[in-house]
Design brief:
The strands form 3 sheets. The protein has a 7-stranded mixed β-sheet, with helices on both faces. A two-stranded parallel sheet has the order 8-9. A two-stranded antiparallel ribbon has the order 10-11. The longest helix is centred in the last third of the chain and has 31 residues. The chain folds into 2 domains: about 210 residues, Vaccinia Virus protein VP39 (Rossmann fold, 3-Layer(aba) Sandwich); about 140 residues, Alpha-Beta Complex (DNA Methylase, Chain A, domain 2). By secondary structure, it is an alpha/beta fold.
Length: about 400
């Protein structure tokens, strides 16, 4: 079992995907948001089958206080050279198209490069120095590559090279790997240079398994909203209630992959909408609010506000505002309601055994901020093959030495 440390872990999308390969376990995680940290600890396990130890606090505290870091590593039973893969998605609000892209200093001048949110990847690099893992996995929004005239991505690649890693990056779409969502992100992978038998980083990226066109030579057609959520029961209006799957219902291969071992569905709670919200959803349909009657429009709106998902397409990007039908294409395809958090989790490829708290707003942020587990599973499978190949080569050399 290969061992992971997960930084800026959120609720555990990256670790859950790696865990689902059967080859990885997460020994330690760092997350500043208490709700997120508790969800991570409730769902992710270490190599001993116990809940992963999660440090809930500012990552800077671990970097500046060696005593605190030592105690946390000891409790997580992390020793020198123990960690195979360091993973993380440094917060990307400063780069996000939906976030605030400028930082105002005390003189009110805009200084995007100085926004402290845009330099958290350097904390990740500090952990690289501390742990010297074999492989690195870093996720961010694709805008990371372009902002500052490429200054941030160049800085990251230069630091990785100086730390002794071969690195490469790819812009990936989650739908290409079986996630029922058009979600574009950039993934950096790096391999320690002394591991000469391991492939270089760009060879660790998996090939797409799905394509927009059915029957395309590159693999299966994209997983759709129908594939993702149609098998779920009607949602409850009572928080905290677990529901059974409906008998003999339609179930896609994706739904089979997502279903819980217990046969129960949690976090499938639907909030009641106002009469006006329902009118807007029905007026917009799968179109645009700018085309509906002026009397129904809100004063300001996103392009996809109050828009229904289409059954036979992947969803658009699931954001932290997925709980609110006015913040994107988050209305159910046919029912007069927004998505439940379980439906949103399905569209992010969280399996139904992954249980979130019953509070809607923090769960919406958890799901929207997460890296889709099925995407990280596919990448994890490629990394596992490379690490196993390296171990086989090393063992063969040891046996040869013994016999000679």
């Amino acid at each position: 079992m290969f061992k992971i440390v997960d930084l800026f872990s959120g609720c555990g999308g990256i670790s859950r995907g790696f865990q689902r390969t059967g080859s990885f376990a997460t020994e330690f995680a760092v997350e500043i948001e208490p709700h997120f940290a508790r969800a991570f600890g409730a769902n992710v396990r270490n190599s001993r089958g116990e809940p992963t130890r999660v440090f809930c606090g500012d990552i800077d505290a671990l970097l500046t206080d060696s005593s605190l870091r030592g105690r946390e590593f000891e409790r997580a039973e992390i020793g020198d050279g123990d960690i195979d893969v360091l993973v993380g998605g440094p917060p990307c609000q400063g780069f996000s198209r939906n976030g605030v892209r400028q930082y105002l200093d005390e003189t009110r001048r805009t200084r995007f490069y100085d926004d402290p949110r845009n330099h958290l990847y350097k904390c990740f690099l500090s952990f690289v120095t501390l742990l010297s893992p074999k492989v690195l996995f870093i996720e961010n929004v694709r805008e990371f590559l372009n902002f500052g005239e490429g200054k941030f991505s160049s800085d990251l690649l230069e630091h990785l090279d100086a730390l002794g890693y071969r690195a490469a990056f790819r812009k990936l779409c989650a739908a290409d790997f079986g996630v029922p969502q058009i979600r574009h992100r950039v993934i950096f992978l790096a391999v320690r240079k002394d591991l000469k038998t391991s492939p270089v980083a760009d060879q660790l990226f998996p090939l797409p398994t799905h394509h927009a066109d059915a029957g395309d030579m590159f693999g299966s057609r994209y997983v759709t909203v129908r594939d993702a959520i149609e098998d779920l029961p009607l949602p409850t209006t009572s928080r905290g209630t677990a529901l059974a799957y409906p008998p003999n219902g339609h179930m896609s291969s994706f739904a089979q992959l997502m279903r819980s071992k217990s046969g129960l569905v949690k976090n499938h709670f639907s909030r009641e909408l106002s009469k006006k919200q329902v009118e807007r959803i029905n007026a917009v349909g799968t179109g645009r609010m700018k085309h509906i009657a002026q009397s129904l429009r809100t004063r300001a709106f996103y392009g996809s506000a109050y828009r229904r998902l289409a059954w036979d397409e992947p969803s658009l990007t699931i954001t932290t505002w997925v709980y609110h039908v006015g913040s994107g294409r988050f209305a159910h395809p046919v029912e007069d309601r927004g998505l439940t958090m379980r439906e949103a989790a399905r569209l992010q490829s969280f399996d139904d055994d992954f249980v979130f708290p019953s509070l809607v707003n923090p769960v919406s942020r958890m799901i929207g901020n997460a890296v889709p587990p099925l995407l990280t599973q596919r990448i994890g499978e490629s990394i596992a093959r490379a690490l196993k190949q390296k171990h086989v080569v090393a063992n063969a050399k040891m046996e040869t030495a013994v016999h000679t």
